[in-house]
Structure formats: C-alpha cells, structure tokens
Amino acid sequence: DQQVKQNSPSLSVQEGRISILNCDYTNSMFDYFLWYKKYPAEGPTFLISISSIKDKNEDGRFTVFLNKSAKHLSLHIVPSQPGDSAVYFCAAWGGGSNYKLTFGKGTLLTVNP
Amino acid sequence: DAGITQSPRHKVTETGTPVTLRCHQTENHRYMYWYRQDPGHGLRLIHYSYGVKDTDKGEVSDGYSVSRSKTEDFLLTLESATSSQTSVYFCAISESERLEQYFGPGTRLTVT
Predict the structure, then answer these.
(1) Distances in Å between the alpha carbon of B60 and those of A5, A28, A51, B48, B56?
(2) Do A99 and B56 touch (CB under 8 A)?
C-alpha cells in the first residue's frame, strides 16, 4: 500500500524552462511534506518542505505547492539548470506514525543544456 | 553539511555471513535512522532510534537488528546476510522528529 506516489519515473526538460515534479498521497493524516534531491552515489539532500497549514512555500528557484483537497503536491523549479539533474523524492510526515517519513519512489529529472 | 559518516562505504560479502554497518554523527542529534534504497522502491525505513538504547522497527526490519549505545553511533547488523539484502544503505539523523532528516553518503552492500 503505497501512501506517497510519484507517478512519473522520469522527466526531461530544457535548460531555462520550468520543471514540475508531482506527488500524490493517500493518507489524510500526513501534515508535513518534504522534497529531497539525490545525485548518484550520494545521500539524499533536503531541498524544501511545506506544512499542511500552508499551500505554498518558496525558496529561490524552488517552490512547493500543496493542494490538500486533492492530496497533491508539486515541486516547481524555475529556471531549470543542468545541475538540477537528479532523482527527486517526495516524503510525508505524520499519518499516525511517529518518527517516520514515508517516501515516494522518486522521479529522475534530466535538464538538457 | 551535517556531520554524518558511514562505514564501510562499499562491502561485498557472502550469503550467510554477519555484516555490521556503522553510522557516526557529530551533530549530537537525538534521532537516527537506517534506510535502504532499491530500484523501484525508493527509500524504505529499516529501523530507527529516538535515543540511546531506544530503537524501534521500520517497515522492512526483518533480517536486521540495530544498536545504539552512544548518541553518536547507530549500528545496523545483518545477522546472516541474504542476496535480497543487496542494496544501498543510508543512515539519517534529525534533531527533532518533525524536522528534516539529513542523510549520510550511503553504503553499497553486495551479498553474493
């Protein structure tokens, strides 16, 4: 039972354009969401987060949008850069389990020069 | 970057042998986690610790045990390694249970 779903295994965009990565969740008790970026042979690094009391959080080129009614969040990267090429994981906190983040399977973003 | 190291970084072992992976932090964070990453599965929690000697199971804990005798060290043990435990293992730490987790560089384990 996958509670956090990233339905696009991969995404390819041109440098300078917008990248939109999507994430859906099924557990309405999730109340805090995070995005992580992972380069090959490295550990995931925290990118940006959003609480369920907000619908948008922005940090430089990265913006996360949360639509609670649709149980959907998205990560926008504008403008996309080749260095953004990585696997992006969506993660959710809460859902009745303490101390535990639930991760999606990840989306491989490729930004072409 | 958070001060997290994992050792070894790479290991090849034979089926049936015991294996211990070490996670060491210098941040004095209370919470520590072990994950495995496999193609098509993302990151899955194996075990976590919420204090010295306080540990609990994650979603894929079968075949694994952990110990935390000091704040800075969290050990993951495979008592008898199997080929299904071939994976990349990540340690993570967090200051609070509701804050972001910071990950180590990973250990690539191959069980032949």
Answers:
(1) 18, 23, 27, 11, 11
(2) yes
